[in-house]
Every structure is written in C-alpha cells, then in structure tokens.
C-alpha cells in the first residue's frame, strides 16, 4: 500500500471512529433514562463556539425552560460528546451543593500545576488539596479582616469620585464598567498584591491591561485550547495546555515574586491578603486554631502564593465591577429607586459624622436589597460548575449517574424562573425586604454559590460594591445614555455575564 492510500485509510478510519464515538456518546442520557436536549454533531447541545449568538447562561436558561415546561426535574445536555447534567428542581440542587456535597466536591475546571502554575488556585483545585487550601484561606475573609481592609476601599472610592467628576463636569457619557474596572482593579491590586496599580491616573496601567487580557473575548486558538481543557482536563494536562494568557501569567508571577522579596528583605508588613499569604508561606497561621480548621500545616510555595493572589484578583475584579455596573444601569432606568437609595445613603453619612464607616455600610438595608436584586437579575457567574466525583444515585429514583459527568447549576435560569421570582425581568428590590426574603425558595438564589464551596470572597465582594455605590450615589445622579442598547444585550463570548456593547451612562453632580 502506498503512502497516500495509507493516509486516506487512516483518515477514513479516524473519521468513522469519531462518528461512532459521538453516536454512542449521544445515547448516554437516553440509556440513563434522563430527559435530554437533542444533541447535534459535533457541538452537542452548545452553540458553535466560534459563531455563537447567545451568552452561555442564556442558552442554558432556554434549555432549563424547555425541560421544566415538560415537567422534568432534571435533564441531560452534551458539551461536544461529553454528557453534562442539568439539575432543575431546587431539591436536586440542594443535594448537589450541600447535602451530598462529598459526591460533588470538585468543579472539573482545568488546572495544570506544572505548565500553568497560576491556574492551580482555590477555584480550580480538587479533592483533599482543595480541602486543605480552603481551611488555610478561610481565616483570610473573616469580618475582622474585612474591617482592616475597609479603609483601602474608602481611599479608592475617593479616586473613583474624582474620576467621575471629570465626566460630569465635561458632560461626557461614561463607560461605567470601564471606570468601575479601575476601581476594583486598584482595590484588589492593593489588597491581594500589595501594589498601587494606579488605574485611574494611568489608563494604560499594566494591571488593567493584563486583567482585561484575561477576561476579554479570546482568540480562536485560545478558544480551542479552552475547549480541549474543559472537555477533557486529563487530555489537556497530557498535552500541556495552558489556559492563562502567557504574557499575563508572566506579569502576575513577577509581581508576586518581587513583592514577596521586598517584604521579606525589608520586614515590611501590611494588613492585606498578600501578607496573610506570605505568613502562610512562612507557616504562620492566618487565624486562631478554631477558625483555621484542619489544614495540613504545609507551608506555601511562591507559586501557590501567586496562584491564590491571582484568583482573588480573577474572582474579585470582574464579578464586583460587573455587579456595580448592572446596578447603576438599573438605578438609571428606575429613578425612583435611585432617589430612595440616595436618601438612605445621605442619612447614613449624616449619622456617621459625614463619612462612611464599616458599621454604616452594614446598616443600609435598602442598599443591601438593591445589591441583592442586582445579583438576582444579573448573577455574574450564571452557571456554577460541579462534577460527579463518584457514581451517584439520584435520590428517590433508580437513576445512577457515572463518576466524571459534569454538572451545570443554572444560576441565571433559577433567578429568572417566574415560579420563584414573578415578573423576573422587573427590577424590584422589594423581593429582598425582611418580609419577602424569608419566603425565597431555598437554593433558588445562588449568586455566590452555596454549600462548602460557596464564594470565599462573598463578604469582601459585597463590601467593595456597597462602598463604591454609596459614594457614587452620594455625589452623582445617573441616567442612561443613548449609546447603551436597551434592553441590554449580553456578550456571547465571555463566561462572566457582561453587557455586549458596554453600559454608557450620563452623570450629573448632586
Ligand atoms: C459580587 C462579587 C462576587 C460574586 C458574584 C462571586 C461569585 C462566586 C461564585 C458563584 C463562586 C462559585 C461558588 C460555588 O461553586 O458554589 C465563587 C467562588 C469563589 N470566589 Fe467569588 N464572587 C464574588 C467576589 C469574590 C471576591 C471579591 C473574591 C476574592 C477576593 C472571590 C473569590 C472566590 C474564590 C477564591 C472562589 C472559589 C472558592 C472555592 O472553590 O473554595 N470572589 N464566587
């Protein structure tokens, strides 16, 4: 047989084998007796990643609605050939996130300690390693530690006000997400990396540049790598795939190395996340024995410090600025809610000698309601991933799902389900007043996730968003500029929920 015939035979066998593999894989949910969305070759139930029109959370919301309208409590999807499980009934979601957590400890997201050390952070790592790391890092986020970082947030709020004044004086519309990105970058940069990132004064600041590089829509090549890594993490690790932009990775790793070296050689300390991580490197526990849990007492390496500082940045910067941006958009669309909130903020400033205190922020009930409703309507993580780490029998059924199957917990779909939130598109902070909050169906409001793997930075994220919003609304009035597409369209290519063409607001001094 000549070479050409050999290649052709190989290709035909390969394509035939692939088709058979997909054909067989696509029968998984039918064989299990789980209702499913009909898959299509080769993407399964997702859209073609290169040309998709819907944001992933919205796509899953439609599939949730389709399955729920037929009375199903759960359903089966396919990510390419790989089966993924979609729980619909909140009782099933409770089992996954909390009651039967030991079957769902991991997220199944990709990390590669060797080739991509920054990816081996708390969000991604698995099993016992995750338990140890979570125990070590939990004391980082106590309310006591939050109070020590409060002043940093207030200091950057002053810079936010100055930057915003420029827009109000010149009567220029502001791309609100962009300016809030400076605010959260500077705060996380300072608290997690111990650096003044200077994003407001320097629009081309390196931190902002590399932060954007990680979140902005990815190139086709990177998208393909992400797909392989997500579809089959073991194959991704075997191929040495990296998912973090190498330039950004180098930048963050160097920043951490330099900061640690500086602090260790000069004995300089600061009350921030970075100091807590350095203490863990030098085996000083971050809290007392009780709050510290059962960690393995191993000290951190420099790569581990960098990975955790990186995840605080990664998980804290975009989620918080997106939340604040959507909140201001809704306040601009609903002036009466904006005015009521401003009254509460002004009163609180008066009661605290014209300034804002940690206690003052905690007192503002309507601010809490407004932020809670923003996170309902716009959960930044619209889909929360988990994976079956053992074979698992769905309670009260004879269905057993195999180890390794992915789970997508549909936060956006639950938050917009009219059974739990009537008129889900209406922005109504009263859903979260003291009375109504009590009747929210458990496990239908999960902007920070739930159970042992709930967001570790919840308190910090809320504090940062509330302080920034309080300062902004005290000083300015917001309305929607005509450059904003109303209703908002969501970017189909990002994972964190984000408005496609930005949110442009007009801003006036109060
Ligand atoms: C509005 C702001 C935020 C939102 C909406 C948010 C949302 C989430 C969600 C949905 C998860 C997954 C939870 C689960 O799987 O059950 C998560 C995990 C996580 N978040 Fe946040 N987050 C926010 C702010 C922050 C901040 C400010 C930080 C750090 C400074 C942070 C650090 C993390 C980390 C490290 C994890 C992984 C926890 C683990 O696996 O143990 N987040 N977040």
From TrEMBL:
Annotated positions binding heme: 455
Gene Ontology CC terms, in alphabetical order: endoplasmic reticulum membrane
Keyword terms of this UniProt record: Endoplasmic reticulum, Heme, Iron, Membrane, Metal-binding, Microsome, Monooxygenase, Oxidoreductase, Transmembrane, Transmembrane helix
Segments traversing the membrane: 6-22
Cofactor(s) it depends on: heme
Cell compartments where the protein resides: Endoplasmic reticulum membrane; Microsome membrane
Cross-referenced SUPFAM superfamilies: Cytochrome P450
Transmembrane helix among keywords: yes
Molecular function via GO: heme binding; iron ion binding; monooxygenase activity; oxidoreductase activity, acting on paired donors, with incorporation or reduction of molecular oxygen
Pfam families given in the database record: p450
InterPro entries attached to this UniProt entry: Cyt_P450, Cyt_P450_CS, Cyt_P450_E_grp-I, Cyt_P450_sf, Insect_CytP450_Detox
Topology within the bilayer: Peripheral membrane protein
The keyword GTP-binding is assigned to this record: no
Family label: Belongs to the cytochrome P450 family.
Matching PANTHER family: CYTOCHROME P450, CYTOCHROME P450 6A16, ISOFORM B-RELATED
Protein's name according to its UniProt entry: Cytochrome P450
Lineage: Eukaryota, Metazoa, Ecdysozoa, Arthropoda, Hexapoda
């Amino acid at each position: 047989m000549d070479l050409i015939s050999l290649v052709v035979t190989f290709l035909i066998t390969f394509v035939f084998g692939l088709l058979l593999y997909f054909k067989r894989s696509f029968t998984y949910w039918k064989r299990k007796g789980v209702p499913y969305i009909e898959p299509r070759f080769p993407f399964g139930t997702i859209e073609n990643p290169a040309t998709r029109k819907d944001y992933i959370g919205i796509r899953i919301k439609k599939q949730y609605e389709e399955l729920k309208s037929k009375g199903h409590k759960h359903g089966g999807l396919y990510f390419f050939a790989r089966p993924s499980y979609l729980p619909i009934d909140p009782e099933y979601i409770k089992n996954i996130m909390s009651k039967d957590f030991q079957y769902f400890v991991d997220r199944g997201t990709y990390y590669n300690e060797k080739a991509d050390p920054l990816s081996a952070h708390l969000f991604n790592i698995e099993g016992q390693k995750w338990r140890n790391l979570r125990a070590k890092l939990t004391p980082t986020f106590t309310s006591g530690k939050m109070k020590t970082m409060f002043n940093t947030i207030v200091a950057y709020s002053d810079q936010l006000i100055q930057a915003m004044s420029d827009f109000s004086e010149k009567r220029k519309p502001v791309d609100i997400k962009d300016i809030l990105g400076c605010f959260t970058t500077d705060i996380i940069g300072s608290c997690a990396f111990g650096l003044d990132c200077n994003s407001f004064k320097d629009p081309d600041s390196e931190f902002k540049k590399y932060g954007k590089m990680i979140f902005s829509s990815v190139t086709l090549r990177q998208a393909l790598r992400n797909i392989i890594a997500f579809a089959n993490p073991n194959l991704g690790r075997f191929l040495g795939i990296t998912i973090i932009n190498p330039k950004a990775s180098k930048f963050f790793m160097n920043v951490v190395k330099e900061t640690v070296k500086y602090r260790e050689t000069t004995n300089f300390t600061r009350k921030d996340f970075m100091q807590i991580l350095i203490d863990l490197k030098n085996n000083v526990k971050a809290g007392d024995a009780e709050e510290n849990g059962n960690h393995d007492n191993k000290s951190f390496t420099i790569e581990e410090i960098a990975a955790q500082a990186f995840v605080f940045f990664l998980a804290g910067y975009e989620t918080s600025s997106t939340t604040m941006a959507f909140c201001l958009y809704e306040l601009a669309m609903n002036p009466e809610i904006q005015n009521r909130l401003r009254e509460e903020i002004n009163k609180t400033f008066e009661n605290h000698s014209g300034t804002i205190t940690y206690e003052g922020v905690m007192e503002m009930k309507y601010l809490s309601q407004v932020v809670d409703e923003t996170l309902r309507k716009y959960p930044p993580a619209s889909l929360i991933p988990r994976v079956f780490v053992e074979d698992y029998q769905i309670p009260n059924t004879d269905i057993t799902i195999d180890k390794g199957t992915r789970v997508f917990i549909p936060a956006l779909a639950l938050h917009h389900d009219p059974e739990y939130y009537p008129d889900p598109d209406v922005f109504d902070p009263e859903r979260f007043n003291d009375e109504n909050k009590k009747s929210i169906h458990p496990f239908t409001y999960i902007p920070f996730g739930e159970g042992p793997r709930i967001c570790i930075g919840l308190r910090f994220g809320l504090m940062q968003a509330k302080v920034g919003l309080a300062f902004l609304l005290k000083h300015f009035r917001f309305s929607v500029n005509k450059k904003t597409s109303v209703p908002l369209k969501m970017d189909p290519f990002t994972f964190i929920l984000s408005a496609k063409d930005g949110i442009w607001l007009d801003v006036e001094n109060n």
